[in-house]
Amino acid sequence: MAGQEIVSIEPATGAILWRNMPGNADEEVAVARAHWAAWAAQPLAYRLEALRRFANVVRARTDAFADLIARETGKPLWEARTEVDTVISKVNISATAFAERTPQRRLDSQLGGRLTLRHKPHGVLAVLGPYNFPAHLPNGHIVPALLAGNAVVFKPSEKTPAVGAFLVDCFHEAGVPKGVLRLLIGGAAEGKALAAHPDIDGLLFTGSARTGIALNRAFADTPEKILALEMGGNNPIIVWDTPDLHSAAVLIVQSAFTSAGQRCTAARRLIVDERLHAPLLAELAKLLDRVIVGDPHADPQPFMGPVIDNEAADLLTESFLTLMSRGGRPIRHMQRPDDNRPFLTPGVIDVTDMNDRPDVELFGPILQMIRVNSFSDAIAEANNTRYGLSASLVSQNPALYDQFWANIRAGIVNWNKPTNGASSSAPFGGIGWSGNHRPSAYYAADYCAYPVVSSEADQARALIGIGLRDE
Asked: Any idea which residues carry the catalytic annotation?
């Protein structure tokens, strides 16, 4: 029985952007399996040159690519352009990372032999992409996987299939063989079929903790397959001992509300000195009064667009009301100007007096504030989560940052910087429910190939010097 047609809707307008029937995981994996060995046998320089051509294709199609990302996700055009830029830069970053993380090396050896370290690709890797960065995040898996010599079957989010199709088309136009990079359009059923397919050699995933944990359980019986999980975060930003409250407010807004809060590194919790919270909130209010929420192509450009769809907007609205009903005190109500479209204004709520605050990732423009009386309490509150992706301290006291860095549980720890905006030139990952210790970005090379150590000699010369009877 054929699956239901996949239809992509522009969140800002409600217009149908793209539609297609879902694909077949068996067929796509079979094609990739048939082609990966020839790709892996090509010299590294050949694969790298194909990927450099891909970067040039994307560069030439920047305007169309950014426009499509903005339309399909709702993010402002300026932000969509930065996403295209990261897609382009990923190739050179991956080449450097490959040379540094997975090179060929000659190691010390004894008895006139040699010991070499080389790396082999896994084979066919599945990539499941998210909707919030539908080009950048899957590309962050695809480029290093192809460079290492793997074939890839990529299933984009059913909410952003058009961007996924555009991305794959850029690879193919650049000369990456169509058999080596396959596009699987579909929803949850196709994603489950791909993840459970016996002929994939691993899965590279970016998405929610709930899905990531389900995948972790599903892969428990297949330790021979690589599984790289990049999940979400309930990320804290602490403001403490800083006289520049305007800059602190800017960092809070950037952390919590960029991409309408739809970033895994977005600040979900603002932890602040009880003595500082009133003047800080005053600065934050002045800034939020100026934040433009609007259509991605509007002029002047908005700071943030809508969330991905009406279902997400409904869930976030319900979540804000639930926080209120459980004791949260609204500082700034999250509003929905149009009931038919998923535009939401930034919401801030004081949950200090709430019992049993939910440790969940509210993937949207909701910031929960918690007031504390000591810096040690602030760190304890920041660590009061099963997640551990990103954390930031806003303070002019270096000693506090030393204490914060030493004690915070997160894979990304920032000082006087937002919680988001991580560099692709560094590893990206977290602990707890934020990942399975397979950091991506610069360290993606680590899970795209496995090390092979060889003890070698030009001639077979061997003897046993002990434990044998005399001849």
From this structure: 230, 264
